[in-house]
Design goal:
Layout lengths: L11 H18 L6 E4 L6 E3 L3 H6 L6 H6 L14 H15 L7 E3 L1 H8 L5 E5 L3 H11 L5 E4 L3 H7 L8 E5 L8 H15 L4 E8 L3 H11 L6 E7 L11 E7 L5 H16 L4 E6 L9
Parallel strand pairs: 1-4, 1-6, 4-5, 6-7
Antiparallel strand pairs: 2-3, 7-9, 8-9, 8-10
C-alpha cells in the first residue's frame, strides 16, 4: 500500500468524517453502558500539518483551518443542540487539546478522535497493516490501556472483531481507495460484519470523484437486508475531467436517535465553511425509513 494519509490530513473530507464520528460517540457516551470503537483502517493516528507531506498539498488550509477560523467558543452553549457551533464544539475541543500553544500544527486521525471521547469503561481497537503507519500508531497510543493496535488487514478485521463483548459501539470503515475495487469490497465486508452484529453502528466513508461509484455503492447496499442507512455527503463542486476529489460521503448504519436532525444543521454549515459553491445531501437509503415528503 503506497497511500499516505499525511498528504490529506485535515482536509475537508477528514473534517466531515471526524465531525460525524464525534457526534456518534457523543450519543454513545450519553448512556452509562460501555461501548467499543473498531477502526478498520486506522492509519498513523497523528499528523503534522507542517510536515513535508501536508505542506506539499496544503489541503488542510481548506479544511480544518477554515473551520477553526470560524470557531466562536465564547458564544457556544453546548446544551443547545440547534447551533452548528455547539454541535461542532466536542470535535473542536479535541483539535484544541492537541494544539495547546494555539497555533494549528497537529491533526488527529480517527483513533485519536475516538480516544479523546473514551470513558474508563470503553475500548478502542485500531487496525493497521502498513508497518510504518502501524509503528506510528503504536507510539501514539502507547500507555493507553483502553486501546489496542492490531496488525491485521482492515477488511479481515471487520469480521474478526464483531460482535464486541460490550455489544454497543461503532465500526469505522475508511479504506484508502487506492484500488478501484475498494468500493466493491466495502459493501461486501460490511455485509459480512453486519450479519454477525446487526445492532452495531457502522460508518462507511467513501470519496466522491464522480457520481458513478457512490451511486453504485448505494444500489448494492440497498439490496442488503439492512433497515436503517443514512447517507450524508458534502460536495465542494461538480465532478471534473481530472478525476480529483470533489466530495466526501458517509453512510451511517443504525444512526443514533437525533443524528439525522443534527446533520441537517451541520452539513450546510460545514459546506459553507469549506466553499461558497458547496452542496450537501442527506437522505435515507432504506425505503421503509425514508422521511415522508
Amino acid at each position: 500500500m503506497n497511500y499516505q494519509h499525511a498528504f490529506h490530513a485535515g482536509n475537508f473530507a477528514d473534517v466531515h468524517k471526524h465531525v460525524v464520528l464525534t457526534r456518534v460517540l457523543e450519543h454513545l457516551r450519553a448512556k452509562p453502558a460501555a461501548f467499543r470503537v473498531i477502526d478498520s483502517h486506522a492509519g498513523a493516528g497523528r499528523y503534522d500539518l507542517l510536515g513535508p507531506e501536508a505542506t506539499r498539498t496544503g489541503e488542510w488550509h481548506d479544511g480544518i483551518e477554515r473551520v477553526l477560523a470560524q470557531r466562536q467558543p465564547g458564544t457556544v452553549r453546548v446544551s443547545d443542540g440547534s447551533s452548528p457551533q455547539a454541535l461542532l464544539e466536542p470535535y473542536l475541543k479535541i483539535i484544541a487539546a492537541l494544539n495547546p500553544a494555539g497555533a494549528l500544527r497537529v491533526y488527529p486521525g480517527s483513533p485519536l478522535v475516538a480516544k479523546a471521547l473514551l470513558r474508563p469503561q470503553d475500548r478502542l481497537i485500531a487496525c493497521e497493516l502498513e508497518p510504518r503507519a502501524r509503528a506510528a500508531l503504536v507510539a501514539v497510543l502507547r500507555g493507553e490501556p483502553r486501546a489496542k493496535v492490531l496488525a491485521i488487514d482492515g477488511w479481515m478485521a471487520l469480521n474478526a472483531n464483531v460482535p464486541p463483548k460490550e455489544r454497543r459501539g461503532v465500526v469505522l470503515i475508511d479504506p484508502p481507495y487506492e484500488d478501484a475495487g475498494d468500493f466493491m469490497r466495502l459493501s461486501g465486508a460490511f455485509h459480512e460484519a453486519h450479519r454477525k452484529w446487526p445492532t452495531g453502528i457502522y460508518l462507511l466513508w467513501y470519496p466522491i470523484k464522480d457520481r458513478a461509484a457512490p451511486e453504485a455503492l448505494a444500489r448494492r447496499l440497498l439490496r442488503l437486508d439492512v433497515p436503517k442507512m443514512l447517507r450524508c455527503e458534502i460536495t465542494l463542486r461538480a465532478p471534473s475531467a481530472d478525476g480529483g476529489l470533489v466530495g466526501s460521503g458517509l453512510i451511517v448504519v443504525n444512526p443514533p436517535f437525533r443524528l439525522a436532525d443534527e446533520l441537517k444543521i451541520l452539513l450546510p454549515a460545514l459546506g459553507g465553511m469549506f466553499s461558497p459553491t458547496s452542496g450537501h445531501q442527506l437522505d435515507w437509503l432504506t425505503v421503509e425509513h425514508a422521511p415522508r415528503r
